[in-house]
Design brief:
The protein has 604 residues and is α/β, with parallel strands linked by helices. It contains 20 helices and 25 strands. Strands 3-2-4-1-10-9-11-15 form an 8-stranded antiparallel beta sheet, covered by helices on one side. Strand 2 and strand 3 (42-48) form a beta hairpin. Helix 4 (124-136) packs across helix 5 (142-152) and helix 9 packs antiparallel against helix 17. The chain starts with a strand and ends in an 18-residue tail after the last helix. Bound molecules: fructose -6-phosphate. Fructose -6-phosphate (F6R) binds next to helix 9 and helix 17.
């Protein structure tokens, strides 16, 4: 959450450079934004709301071409979104931007107040700047001062720092919040992720926890916490800038749903040739008799789909837990347990913390991640990359789909390894897997049907998603997608559970979306849905069967082609994503940047 950028280099129109770079990070937070630009003086400009507000405010501010600047887009943690709480913060002779949370800021603040510091904002960040300023009164060396600061902070931080006494350099440090350095010919940059530097360079360095970077216009030095110079490897971004553009689509979310067939093909192609490829390209899973899946949000929902598949096909018990819970509870695992961490960004704070706990206990870990080189990808013992490319819309679509696809492949691998499925049976499914991208394409082409169904829902106050088994897990994702982008209250319920309380909310006109694909549970779910109809519910079914004609059940329906049940989740979620999108569009919502949200949740 929050995005930071910084520039040091040859003189240029830094207002434009910083705004352009910041815009690529807007998915990380968009409550307010600000810049600090040095042109002989430090000019700080901040604006509440989206980056475009800051861009407009900057038009009226006279700032000369500059060689040094930092900027920030905020997802508020401490203090409401307003100009005072926005970054950059400046105290004494130090100006900085911060992504993260300082947990001990209250204790530090008391001490600084005793020293005579006066605070104007509600933020933890202002305390951090004051602390650095107070350290600087005794320690002139900026690297040593930052190192001392790190030792006093509890929490997470990625900082971009300008010291008044050294405007030839930009300083940066991180702990548990992402930070990269873009390396160019005539400038160097810092950013929360590579999308902000790709217009300038494909070359970047990853900064590790507690490392301190000193960037000059043509040199980057990185020091470890013992103040020794570290030799950093330079990596190259493998994707193209166009991936981070809308390319003719009205919204990133729509573009990303449209990319699903192609990214699915890219992700699965190396595994689905035959069972031998599936076994060879994945780690050896043969020793595991228990699996835990740990993730947040949609990634956790993907984990629930994975649980149904692994338990059903491989006969291995799976526990799925929210990372924010798993990290603080007692977990029961041993040397035969594999703990799988799922994350699009690879930077989700709770998932990282849970991973570190499991690593400390010496239990095997596997990450399913999209962003190459991200913290989770680097710290897990094994990693399987999905190939979603850049996902910009805050609500995940293509990455969720690929997480499910990867879990299906893991499930098939385990099923074969555990002799629950024969070579022929796995090969048969892998063959059908190859057809799934084009079948998804067929669903995407039915967008106008989804639009018509969305028209039935978009004025709803509440929507209830009902399903059983694997369909219930998909309902959870459908419900999250709808509520997060359209702001319609929605809940996913196990169809059989509704009558234990929640059915009291069903009244004339309440919208119910049923997901029915599991043949063995089809009639059971239908009975539960009929119970809601008896109380006045309006029903839409997302299903693999024609309920209107085959079961004489009068409702709106979207019928998805039937495929092997292990692959069915990949098709059934697509209309749910499209309907959520169309509902939000009809309601005039800011689909790619829903209120209060941020894409990469780097605070706990
Ligand atoms: C919802 C959504 C979030 C993420 C969650 C985990 O559309 O995108 O629920 O799934 O914040 O993020 P990652 O996968 O980056 O760990």
């Amino acid at each position: 959450m929050c995005g930071i950028v910084g520039y040091i280099g040859k003189k240029c129109d830094l207002k434009k450079v910083l705004i352009d770079n910041l815009k690529t990070l807007e998915y990380r937070g968009y409550d307010s934004a600000g810049v600090a630009i040095y042109d002989g003086n430090i000019n700080i400009v901040k604006a509440k709301g989206k980056i475009v507000n800051l861009e407009n405010s900057l038009k009226d501010v006279d700032i000369c071409d500059s060689n040094l600047g930092i900027a920030h887009t905020r997802w508020a943690t401490h203090g409401e979104a307003n100009d005072i709480n926005s970054h950059p913060h400046r105290v004494g002779k130090v100006t900085l931007v911060h992504n993260g949370i300082i947990e001990n800021y209250n204790d530090l603040k008391k001490d600084l107040i005793r020293q005579g510091y006066i605070f104007v904002s509600d933020t933890d960040t202002e305390v951090l700047v004051a602390l650095l300023d107070s350290i600087k009164k005794k320690e002139k060396d900026n690297i040593k001062a930052i190192n001392s600061l790190s030792k006093l902070l509890i929490g997470s931080y990625a900082l971009g720092i300008i010291f008044d006494d050294d405007c030839e350099h930009l300083y940066a440090v991180r702990k548990d919040s992402p930070l990269i350095i873009g390396v160019c010919n005539d400038c160097n940059l810092i950013a929360s992720d590579v999308t902000a530097i790709i217009d300038y360079t494909k070359k970047y360095m990853l900064i590790d926890d507690y490392e301190i970077a000193k960037l000059g216009k043509d040199i980057v030095e990185v020091f470890n916490s013992d103040l020794l110079l570290v030799n950093k490897e330079i990596s190259e971004v493998t994707w193209d800038i166009n991936q981070a553009k809308k390319n003719g689509f009205s919204h990133f979310m729509l573009k990303e749903i449209n990319e699903e067939p192609i990214v699915l093909k890219e992700t699965i192609s190396e595994y689905i040739k035959d069972v031998n490829a599936l076994i060879k390209k994945m780690p050896d899973f043969s020793k595991y008799n228990k699996i835990h899946i740990v993730a947040c949000g949609s990634a956790m929902h993907a984990g629930l789909v994975g649980k149904s598949i692994i338990e059903e096909y491989a006969g291995i018990p799976v526990i799925v837990e929210l990372a924010s819970e798993y990290r603080y509870k007692k977990n029961f695992y041993d040397s035969k347990t594999l703990v799988i961490f799922i994350s699009q960004s690879g930077e989700t704070a709770d998932t990282i913390a849970a991973l570190r706990n499991v690593n400390n206990d010496n239990i095997d870990t596997l990450a399913i991640v999209n962003v190459v080189g991200s913290t989770i990808a680097r710290e897990a013992k094994e990693v399987l990359y999905i190939r979603a490319g850049v996902e910009i819309a805050v609500a995940t679509t293509k990455a969720y789909l690929l997480q499910v696809a990867m879990l299906i492949l893991v499930g098939l691998n385990l099923a074969y390894t555990n002799k629950k499925l024969s070579e022929n049976e796995v090969n048969f499914i892998l063959n059908e897997f190859e057809e799934i991208p084009s079948k998804i394409q067929n669903i995407i082409c039915r967008d106008s049907e989804c639009f018509n169904l969305a028209k039935e829902i978009y004025e709803a106050k509440d929507v209830f998603f009902l399903g059983r088994g694997i369909d219930y897990s998909i309902c959870m994702e459908g419900s999250l997608k709808l509520k997060e982008i359209s702001y319609i209250h929605s809940e996913a319920y196990a169809a059989g559970e509704l009558k234990h309380g929640t059915i009291s909310l069903i009244e004339k006109g309440t919208n119910v979306i049923g997901v029915i694909t599991d043949e063995s549970l089809m009639l059971k779910t239908l009975s539960n849905i009929k119970e809601t109809v008896a109380r006045g519910a309006k029903v839409l079914l997302i299903t693999t069967d024609k309920f209107n004609s085959h079961y004489d059940f009068n409702c709106h329906e979207f019928v998805v082609e039937k495929v092997n049940s292990v692959l069915q989740p990949l098709l059934i979620v697509v209309p749910l994503q499209l309907i959520a999108f169309e509902v939000a569009r009809l309601r005039g919502c800011d689909i790619d940047k829903p209120r209060n949200l941020a894409k990469s949740v780097t605070v706990e």
